[in-house]
Amino acid sequence: MEVDDILRNFDTEVGQRSQKPKVDLYTSLSRVMLNERMAPEILPYQKDLLDEVLSRITNQQQLLLDSHEYGDVNIDSGIITSDYKLQLMIMETDIERLSYLVRLYLRVRLSKLETFTIHYIRLTGERDDTKATLLSDEEQEYLTKYMGLLQSLYNNSILKKIPRELTYLDEVESDISMVTTPDVDEMVFIKVLRDETITIPLEDEDELQLEKDAVFVVKYGLISGYLNIGDVILI
Amino acid sequence: MFGDQANKLVLDAHRTSNLPEITLYQSDLVDDIVKETNDLGRDVDYITEQQRTNPEGTSAEQIVALECQLFVARLSMRRNKRCLLAHQKLRADKMNEFAWLNIDPSDSNSTPQPSLTKTGALGSNYTTRMILDNLSNQEQEYFKQYSQLLVDMKSKYVDIDLSGDLEPPTSIFIDVRVLKDGGEVQTEYGVFNLIKDSQFYVRKSDVERLIQQGYLEEL
Protein backbone atom coordinates (compact mmCIF):
# COMPACT_ATOMS: atom_id res chain seq x y z
CA MET A 1 0.00 0.00 0.00
CA GLU A 2 1.85 3.01 -1.27
CA VAL A 3 -0.36 5.69 0.14
CA ASP A 4 -0.42 4.09 3.55
CA ASP A 5 3.34 4.01 3.50
CA ILE A 6 3.42 7.68 2.75
CA LEU A 7 1.01 8.38 5.54
CA ARG A 8 3.07 6.39 7.97
CA ASN A 9 6.03 8.41 6.82
CA PHE A 10 4.06 11.51 7.39
CA ASP A 11 3.23 10.46 10.94
CA THR A 12 6.84 9.75 11.78
CA GLU A 13 7.87 13.01 10.16
CA VAL A 14 5.38 14.92 12.24
CA GLY A 15 6.59 13.07 15.29
CA GLN A 16 10.17 13.92 14.54
CA ARG A 17 9.44 17.55 14.18
CA SER A 18 8.58 17.98 17.82
CA GLN A 19 11.80 16.27 18.82
CA LYS A 20 15.29 17.61 18.86
CA PRO A 21 16.86 17.20 15.42
CA LYS A 22 14.17 19.12 13.61
CA VAL A 23 14.28 21.97 16.10
CA ASP A 24 18.01 22.12 15.66
CA LEU A 25 17.73 22.37 11.93
CA TYR A 26 15.27 25.17 12.16
CA THR A 27 17.24 27.08 14.78
CA SER A 28 20.50 26.68 12.96
CA LEU A 29 18.92 27.86 9.74
CA SER A 30 17.57 30.95 11.50
CA ARG A 31 20.97 31.59 13.00
CA VAL A 32 22.77 31.17 9.72
CA MET A 33 20.28 33.47 8.05
CA LEU A 34 20.58 36.16 10.73
CA ASN A 35 24.37 35.96 10.75
CA GLU A 36 24.43 36.44 7.03
CA ARG A 37 21.91 39.23 7.18
CA MET A 38 23.75 41.25 9.79
CA ALA A 39 27.35 40.65 8.72
CA PRO A 40 28.88 43.26 6.41
CA GLU A 41 30.81 40.67 4.41
CA ILE A 42 29.74 37.39 2.89
CA LEU A 43 30.14 34.37 5.18
CA PRO A 44 31.15 30.87 4.09
CA TYR A 45 28.31 29.08 2.37
CA GLN A 46 26.65 26.60 4.76
CA LYS A 47 26.55 23.81 2.25
CA ASP A 48 25.63 20.89 4.50
CA LEU A 49 22.85 22.74 6.23
CA LEU A 50 21.42 24.17 3.05
CA ASP A 51 21.55 20.84 1.23
CA GLU A 52 19.75 19.23 4.12
CA VAL A 53 17.09 21.91 4.28
CA LEU A 54 16.55 22.00 0.55
CA SER A 55 16.14 18.28 0.23
CA ARG A 56 13.74 18.22 3.17
CA ILE A 57 11.68 20.97 1.66
CA THR A 58 11.47 19.05 -1.59
CA ASN A 59 10.45 15.90 0.24
CA GLN A 60 7.85 17.63 2.33
CA GLN A 61 6.39 19.29 -0.71
CA GLN A 62 6.08 16.00 -2.49
CA LEU A 63 4.55 14.48 0.60
CA LEU A 64 2.11 17.34 0.82
CA LEU A 65 1.03 16.85 -2.78
CA ASP A 66 0.57 13.13 -2.27
CA SER A 67 -1.37 13.66 0.92
CA HIS A 68 -3.64 16.15 -0.77
CA GLU A 69 -4.29 13.66 -3.50
CA TYR A 70 -4.99 10.98 -0.94
CA GLY A 71 -7.39 13.30 0.82
CA ASP A 72 -9.21 14.18 -2.37
CA VAL A 73 -9.64 10.58 -3.42
CA ASN A 74 -10.99 9.47 -0.07
CA ILE A 75 -13.04 12.52 0.74
CA ASP A 76 -16.40 10.74 0.53
CA SER A 77 -15.46 7.53 2.26
CA GLY A 78 -15.36 9.07 5.71
CA ILE A 79 -11.73 8.19 6.43
CA ILE A 80 -10.74 11.80 6.20
CA THR A 81 -11.47 13.88 9.25
CA SER A 82 -11.29 17.62 9.45
CA ASP A 83 -8.09 17.17 11.43
CA TYR A 84 -6.47 15.77 8.35
CA LYS A 85 -6.85 19.03 6.44
CA LEU A 86 -5.59 20.94 9.43
CA GLN A 87 -2.49 18.79 9.60
CA LEU A 88 -1.78 19.51 5.97
CA MET A 89 -2.26 23.22 6.54
CA ILE A 90 0.21 23.16 9.38
CA MET A 91 2.68 21.31 7.25
CA GLU A 92 2.33 23.77 4.45
CA THR A 93 2.79 26.74 6.76
CA ASP A 94 5.93 25.13 8.04
CA ILE A 95 7.29 24.66 4.54
CA GLU A 96 6.50 28.27 3.76
CA ARG A 97 8.44 29.43 6.79
CA LEU A 98 11.45 27.32 5.93
CA SER A 99 11.45 28.49 2.33
CA TYR A 100 11.24 32.04 3.54
CA LEU A 101 14.40 31.64 5.62
CA VAL A 102 16.28 30.02 2.77
CA ARG A 103 15.05 32.67 0.35
CA LEU A 104 16.21 35.47 2.61
CA TYR A 105 19.57 33.77 3.11
CA LEU A 106 20.24 33.35 -0.59
CA ARG A 107 18.97 36.79 -1.51
CA VAL A 108 21.15 38.52 1.06
CA ARG A 109 24.17 36.67 -0.29
CA LEU A 110 23.38 37.60 -3.86
CA SER A 111 22.91 41.22 -2.95
CA LYS A 112 26.31 41.25 -1.25
CA LEU A 113 27.86 39.72 -4.35
CA GLU A 114 26.29 42.44 -6.44
CA THR A 115 27.49 45.20 -4.15
CA PHE A 116 31.09 44.02 -3.85
CA THR A 117 31.43 42.25 -7.18
CA ILE A 118 35.05 43.04 -7.98
CA HIS A 119 36.15 42.43 -4.41
CA TYR A 120 34.73 38.91 -4.39
CA ILE A 121 35.95 38.18 -7.89
CA ARG A 122 39.45 38.88 -6.62
CA LEU A 123 38.95 37.01 -3.39
CA THR A 124 37.64 33.85 -4.97
CA GLY A 125 40.10 34.05 -7.82
CA GLU A 126 43.31 34.12 -5.85
CA ARG A 127 42.90 31.44 -3.19
CA ASP A 128 41.50 28.06 -3.99
CA ASP A 129 40.57 27.06 -0.48
CA THR A 130 38.40 30.11 0.07
CA LYS A 131 36.87 29.56 -3.29
CA ALA A 132 35.76 26.13 -2.25
CA THR A 133 33.90 27.17 0.90
CA LEU A 134 32.96 30.81 0.56
CA LEU A 135 30.46 30.51 -2.25
CA SER A 136 28.30 27.75 -3.56
CA ASP A 137 28.81 26.66 -7.16
CA GLU A 138 25.67 28.47 -8.17
CA GLU A 139 26.81 31.64 -6.51
CA GLN A 140 30.26 31.42 -8.05
CA GLU A 141 28.71 31.10 -11.47
CA TYR A 142 26.35 33.95 -10.76
CA LEU A 143 29.21 36.17 -9.64
CA THR A 144 31.28 35.48 -12.71
CA LYS A 145 28.39 36.02 -15.08
CA TYR A 146 27.29 39.16 -13.29
CA MET A 147 30.77 40.62 -13.52
CA GLY A 148 30.75 39.87 -17.22
CA LEU A 149 27.46 41.66 -17.67
CA LEU A 150 28.57 44.70 -15.73
CA GLN A 151 31.87 44.82 -17.55
CA SER A 152 30.27 44.74 -20.96
CA LEU A 153 27.76 47.40 -19.95
CA TYR A 154 30.60 49.67 -18.80
CA ASN A 155 32.64 48.93 -21.88
CA ASN A 156 29.85 49.53 -24.32
CA SER A 157 28.47 52.68 -22.83
CA ILE A 158 31.57 54.41 -21.50
CA LEU A 159 34.97 52.80 -21.46
CA LYS A 160 35.42 52.12 -25.14
CA LYS A 161 34.77 55.78 -25.89
CA ILE A 162 37.31 57.33 -23.57
CA PRO A 163 41.13 57.26 -23.73
CA ARG A 164 42.62 53.84 -23.28
CA GLU A 165 44.62 54.60 -20.15
CA LEU A 166 41.37 55.22 -18.26
CA THR A 167 39.78 51.86 -18.88
CA TYR A 168 40.81 50.10 -15.68
CA LEU A 169 38.12 49.35 -13.14
CA ASP A 170 40.38 48.84 -10.17
CA GLU A 171 42.51 51.96 -9.96
CA VAL A 172 43.61 53.43 -6.68
CA GLU A 173 43.49 57.17 -6.90
CA SER A 174 44.55 59.49 -4.08
CA ASP A 175 44.28 56.50 -1.73
CA ILE A 176 40.70 55.76 -2.63
CA SER A 177 40.34 52.44 -4.38
CA MET A 178 37.65 52.02 -7.01
CA VAL A 179 36.88 48.61 -5.61
CA THR A 180 34.36 48.81 -2.81
CA THR A 181 35.00 46.36 -0.03
CA PRO A 182 32.84 45.34 2.91
CA ASP A 183 33.30 47.54 5.94
CA VAL A 184 34.65 45.23 8.64
CA ASP A 185 34.59 48.02 11.19
CA GLU A 186 30.84 48.12 11.09
CA MET A 187 29.22 47.76 14.48
CA VAL A 188 27.21 44.60 14.97
CA PHE A 189 25.12 43.19 17.79
CA ILE A 190 26.34 39.83 18.98
CA LYS A 191 25.28 37.21 21.44
CA VAL A 192 27.86 34.90 22.98
CA LEU A 193 27.23 31.17 22.89
CA ARG A 194 30.50 29.69 24.14
CA ASP A 195 30.58 28.55 27.76
CA GLU A 196 34.01 29.95 28.59
CA THR A 197 34.55 33.66 28.50
CA ILE A 198 36.19 34.96 25.35
CA THR A 199 38.80 37.66 25.82
CA ILE A 200 39.53 39.97 22.96
CA PRO A 201 42.48 42.39 23.17
CA LEU A 202 41.66 45.93 22.15
CA GLU A 203 43.87 48.91 21.36
CA ASP A 204 45.50 50.74 24.27
CA GLU A 205 45.80 47.50 26.24
CA ASP A 206 42.14 47.21 26.99
CA GLU A 207 40.39 43.90 26.94
CA LEU A 208 36.90 42.90 26.07
CA GLN A 209 35.38 40.04 28.04
CA LEU A 210 32.61 38.21 26.26
CA GLU A 211 30.58 36.13 28.68
CA LYS A 212 28.08 33.48 27.76
CA ASP A 213 24.58 34.68 26.87
CA ALA A 214 25.63 38.31 27.05
CA VAL A 215 24.83 40.76 24.29
CA PHE A 216 27.44 43.18 22.98
CA VAL A 217 27.88 45.80 20.31
CA VAL A 218 31.31 45.41 18.75
CA LYS A 219 33.16 46.03 15.55
CA TYR A 220 32.55 43.18 13.18
CA GLY A 221 36.25 42.66 12.45
CA LEU A 222 36.97 41.80 16.09
CA ILE A 223 34.60 38.89 16.32
CA SER A 224 34.47 37.55 12.75
CA GLY A 225 36.73 34.65 13.71
CA TYR A 226 34.45 33.59 16.55
CA LEU A 227 31.45 33.99 14.32
CA ASN A 228 32.80 31.46 11.84
CA ILE A 229 33.31 28.80 14.49
CA GLY A 230 29.92 29.49 16.00
CA ASP A 231 31.03 30.87 19.37
CA VAL A 232 29.03 34.00 18.85
CA ILE A 233 26.00 34.79 16.72
CA LEU A 234 24.81 38.04 15.27
CA ILE A 235 21.43 39.31 16.28
CA MET B 1 34.95 74.44 -16.21
CA PHE B 2 36.19 70.89 -16.36
CA GLY B 3 33.93 68.55 -14.49
CA ASP B 4 30.83 70.71 -14.50
CA GLN B 5 29.06 68.35 -16.86
CA ALA B 6 30.02 65.36 -14.80
CA ASN B 7 28.70 67.11 -11.76
CA LYS B 8 25.34 67.51 -13.47
CA LEU B 9 25.31 63.82 -14.22
CA VAL B 10 26.07 62.92 -10.63
CA LEU B 11 23.32 65.22 -9.40
CA ASP B 12 20.96 63.53 -11.81
CA ALA B 13 22.04 60.13 -10.52
CA HIS B 14 21.49 61.30 -6.97
CA ARG B 15 18.00 62.43 -7.82
CA THR B 16 17.29 59.15 -9.59
CA SER B 17 18.42 57.14 -6.59
CA ASN B 18 15.46 58.48 -4.62
CA LEU B 19 12.86 57.74 -7.27
CA PRO B 20 10.87 54.55 -7.73
CA GLU B 21 11.60 54.62 -11.45
CA ILE B 22 14.50 55.01 -13.83
CA THR B 23 14.79 58.38 -15.52
CA LEU B 24 15.59 58.99 -19.16
CA TYR B 25 19.15 58.12 -20.10
CA GLN B 26 21.00 61.41 -20.53
CA SER B 27 22.81 60.46 -23.70
CA ASP B 28 23.66 64.06 -24.65
CA LEU B 29 25.17 64.76 -21.29
CA VAL B 30 27.09 61.51 -21.31
CA ASP B 31 28.35 62.24 -24.82
CA ASP B 32 29.46 65.69 -23.74
CA ILE B 33 31.39 64.27 -20.84
CA VAL B 34 32.99 61.63 -23.03
CA LYS B 35 33.96 64.35 -25.48
CA GLU B 36 35.40 66.53 -22.73
CA THR B 37 37.38 63.57 -21.45
CA ASN B 38 38.75 62.84 -24.91
CA ASP B 39 39.67 66.49 -25.43
CA LEU B 40 41.53 66.45 -22.15
CA GLY B 41 43.24 63.27 -23.26
CA ARG B 42 44.48 65.02 -26.39
CA ASP B 43 45.64 67.97 -24.31
CA VAL B 44 47.66 65.63 -22.16
CA ASP B 45 49.18 63.97 -25.21
CA TYR B 46 50.04 67.34 -26.70
CA ILE B 47 51.67 68.65 -23.55
CA THR B 48 53.73 65.54 -22.96
CA GLU B 49 54.77 65.60 -26.60
CA GLN B 50 55.86 69.22 -26.22
CA GLN B 51 57.77 68.50 -23.07
CA ARG B 52 59.54 65.67 -24.76
CA THR B 53 60.48 67.37 -28.00
CA ASN B 54 61.32 70.72 -26.51
CA PRO B 55 62.86 70.15 -23.08
CA GLU B 56 65.19 73.18 -23.13
CA GLY B 57 63.46 76.12 -24.78
CA THR B 58 61.15 76.65 -21.86
CA SER B 59 61.78 78.59 -18.69
CA ALA B 60 61.33 77.06 -15.25
CA GLU B 61 58.11 78.99 -14.82
CA GLN B 62 56.68 77.57 -18.01
CA ILE B 63 57.61 74.07 -16.97
CA VAL B 64 55.75 74.48 -13.72
CA ALA B 65 52.76 75.86 -15.59
CA LEU B 66 52.76 72.90 -17.95
CA GLU B 67 53.09 70.45 -15.10
CA CYS B 68 50.10 72.02 -13.38
CA GLN B 69 48.08 71.91 -16.56
CA LEU B 70 48.94 68.29 -17.01
CA PHE B 71 48.02 67.48 -13.45
CA VAL B 72 44.64 69.20 -13.65
CA ALA B 73 43.82 67.59 -16.98
CA ARG B 74 44.64 64.10 -15.73
CA LEU B 75 42.67 64.62 -12.56
CA SER B 76 39.65 65.89 -14.46
CA MET B 77 39.75 62.95 -16.84
CA ARG B 78 39.73 60.48 -14.00
CA ARG B 79 37.03 62.36 -12.22
CA ASN B 80 34.88 62.31 -15.36
CA LYS B 81 35.38 58.62 -15.76
CA ARG B 82 34.42 57.92 -12.16
CA CYS B 83 31.29 60.05 -12.50
CA LEU B 84 30.27 58.22 -15.65
CA LEU B 85 30.81 54.84 -14.05
CA ALA B 86 28.99 55.80 -10.87
CA HIS B 87 26.03 56.98 -12.90
CA GLN B 88 25.99 53.79 -14.92
CA LYS B 89 26.33 51.60 -11.85
CA LEU B 90 23.42 53.30 -10.15
CA ARG B 91 21.23 52.72 -13.16
CA ALA B 92 22.36 49.11 -13.36
CA ASP B 93 21.48 48.62 -9.68
CA LYS B 94 18.06 50.06 -10.24
CA MET B 95 17.52 47.78 -13.21
CA ASN B 96 18.52 44.85 -11.01
CA GLU B 97 16.00 45.83 -8.37
CA PHE B 98 13.33 46.01 -10.97
CA ALA B 99 14.26 42.69 -12.54
CA TRP B 100 13.63 40.91 -9.24
CA LEU B 101 10.00 42.05 -9.21
CA ASN B 102 8.90 39.94 -12.18
CA ILE B 103 7.02 42.80 -13.77
CA ASP B 104 7.21 43.51 -17.45
CA PRO B 105 8.66 46.91 -18.17
CA SER B 106 6.33 49.23 -20.04
CA ASP B 107 7.25 50.18 -23.56
CA SER B 108 6.68 53.91 -23.68
CA ASN B 109 5.42 56.86 -21.75
CA SER B 110 1.94 56.57 -23.22
CA THR B 111 0.97 53.51 -21.18
CA PRO B 112 1.29 54.44 -17.54
CA GLN B 113 1.80 51.51 -15.20
CA PRO B 114 -0.60 51.26 -12.32
CA SER B 115 1.18 52.44 -9.23
CA LEU B 116 2.03 49.46 -7.11
CA THR B 117 0.94 49.13 -3.57
CA LYS B 118 4.05 49.27 -1.47
CA THR B 119 5.08 46.29 0.50
CA GLY B 120 6.88 47.05 3.71
CA ALA B 121 10.11 45.25 2.91
CA LEU B 122 10.87 47.48 -0.05
CA GLY B 123 11.83 51.04 0.70
CA SER B 124 9.95 53.92 -0.84
CA ASN B 125 12.71 54.42 -3.39
CA TYR B 126 12.71 50.82 -4.55
CA THR B 127 12.45 50.70 -8.31
CA THR B 128 8.92 49.61 -9.09
CA ARG B 129 8.48 51.20 -12.49
CA MET B 130 10.63 51.08 -15.54
CA ILE B 131 10.05 52.40 -19.00
CA LEU B 132 12.12 50.63 -21.62
CA ASP B 133 12.45 53.76 -23.76
CA ASN B 134 14.24 55.48 -20.90
CA LEU B 135 17.11 53.05 -21.16
CA SER B 136 19.96 53.32 -23.59
CA ASN B 137 20.49 50.46 -26.02
CA GLN B 138 23.32 49.05 -23.98
CA GLU B 139 21.19 49.20 -20.87
CA GLN B 140 18.35 47.37 -22.54
CA GLU B 141 20.76 44.66 -23.53
CA TYR B 142 22.08 44.52 -19.98
CA PHE B 143 18.59 44.30 -18.55
CA LYS B 144 17.73 41.46 -20.88
CA GLN B 145 20.79 39.49 -19.92
CA TYR B 146 20.42 40.18 -16.23
CA SER B 147 16.85 38.93 -16.34
CA GLN B 148 18.13 35.81 -18.03
CA LEU B 149 20.72 35.41 -15.29
CA LEU B 150 17.96 35.59 -12.71
CA VAL B 151 15.87 33.02 -14.52
CA ASP B 152 18.85 30.68 -14.55
CA MET B 153 19.48 31.25 -10.87
CA LYS B 154 15.85 30.78 -9.93
CA SER B 155 15.59 27.57 -11.88
CA LYS B 156 18.21 26.09 -9.56
CA TYR B 157 16.01 26.68 -6.54
CA VAL B 158 12.55 25.85 -7.80
CA ASP B 159 11.17 24.94 -4.38
CA ILE B 160 12.24 28.20 -2.81
CA ASP B 161 10.88 30.77 -5.25
CA LEU B 162 13.85 33.13 -4.94
CA SER B 163 11.98 36.18 -6.11
CA GLY B 164 9.10 35.64 -3.74
CA ASP B 165 7.93 37.92 -0.99
CA LEU B 166 10.62 39.05 1.43
CA GLU B 167 8.13 39.63 4.22
CA PRO B 168 7.79 36.75 6.67
CA PRO B 169 4.82 34.57 5.75
CA THR B 170 1.91 34.71 8.17
CA SER B 171 -0.74 32.42 6.76
CA ILE B 172 -1.24 30.32 3.67
CA PHE B 173 -4.57 31.83 2.76
CA ILE B 174 -5.11 35.54 2.43
CA ASP B 175 -7.84 38.01 1.49
CA VAL B 176 -7.16 39.90 -1.70
CA ARG B 177 -8.95 42.64 -3.55
CA VAL B 178 -8.77 42.92 -7.32
CA LEU B 179 -7.34 46.23 -8.50
CA LYS B 180 -7.83 45.84 -12.22
CA ASP B 181 -9.65 43.55 -14.61
CA GLY B 182 -7.65 40.69 -15.98
CA GLY B 183 -9.46 37.58 -17.09
CA GLU B 184 -9.55 34.15 -15.55
CA VAL B 185 -7.08 32.69 -13.10
CA GLN B 186 -6.64 28.96 -12.57
CA THR B 187 -5.58 27.70 -9.20
CA GLU B 188 -5.47 24.39 -7.44
CA TYR B 189 -8.79 25.15 -5.81
CA GLY B 190 -10.62 26.17 -8.92
CA VAL B 191 -11.02 29.18 -11.11
CA PHE B 192 -11.73 32.78 -10.26
CA ASN B 193 -12.25 35.84 -12.39
CA LEU B 194 -10.31 39.02 -11.96
CA ILE B 195 -13.06 41.62 -11.84
CA LYS B 196 -12.18 44.99 -10.40
CA ASP B 197 -13.11 45.56 -6.75
CA SER B 198 -14.15 41.98 -6.07
CA GLN B 199 -12.59 40.12 -3.17
CA PHE B 200 -11.29 36.61 -2.78
CA TYR B 201 -9.92 34.35 -0.12
CA VAL B 202 -7.08 32.52 -1.84
CA ARG B 203 -3.88 30.64 -1.30
CA LYS B 204 -1.04 33.11 -1.05
CA SER B 205 1.48 31.18 -3.12
CA ASP B 206 -1.03 31.02 -5.99
CA VAL B 207 -1.49 34.75 -6.28
CA GLU B 208 1.92 36.11 -5.33
CA ARG B 209 2.77 36.94 -8.94
CA LEU B 210 -0.52 38.74 -9.40
CA ILE B 211 0.14 40.86 -6.34
CA GLN B 212 3.60 41.75 -7.63
CA GLN B 213 2.15 42.63 -11.00
CA GLY B 214 -0.38 44.93 -9.42
CA TYR B 215 -3.56 42.99 -10.21
CA LEU B 216 -4.33 42.18 -6.62
CA GLU B 217 -3.91 43.91 -3.31
CA GLU B 218 -3.52 42.06 -0.06
CA LEU B 219 -5.98 43.12 2.60
From TrEMBL, chain A:
One of its GO terms (biological process) is DNA-templated DNA replication. Residues 182-235 form the DNA replication complex GINS protein SLD5 C-terminal domain. The keyword Nucleus applies. Pfam families: Sld5 (PF05916), SLD5_C (PF16922). The keyword Nucleus applies. Belongs to the GINS4/SLD5 family. The GINS complex plays an essential role in the initiation of DNA replication. Component of the GINS complex which is a heterotetramer of SLD5, PSF1, PSF2 and PSF3. This is DNA replication complex GINS protein SLD5. It comes from Candida tenuis (strain ATCC 10573 / BCRC 21748 / CBS 615 / JCM 9827 / NBRC 10315 / NRRL Y-1498 / VKM Y-70). The lineage of its organism: Eukaryota, Fungi, Dikarya, Ascomycota, Saccharomycotina.
Automatic annotation (TrEMBL), chain B:
Keywords: DNA replication, Nucleus. Its main location: nucleus. Gene3D superfamilies: 1.20.58.1030. It is found in: Nucleus. InterPro entries: GINS_A, GINS_bundle-like_dom_sf, GINS_Psf1, PSF1_C. GO terms for biological process: DNA strand elongation involved in mitotic DNA replication. It holds the Pfam family Sld5. GO terms for cellular component: GINS complex. Required for correct functioning of the GINS complex, a complex that plays an essential role in the initiation of DNA replication, and progression of DNA replication forks. GINS complex seems to bind preferentially to single-stranded DNA. This is DNA replication complex GINS protein PSF1. It comes from Candida tenuis (strain ATCC 10573 / BCRC 21748 / CBS 615 / JCM 9827 / NBRC 10315 / NRRL Y-1498 / VKM Y-70).
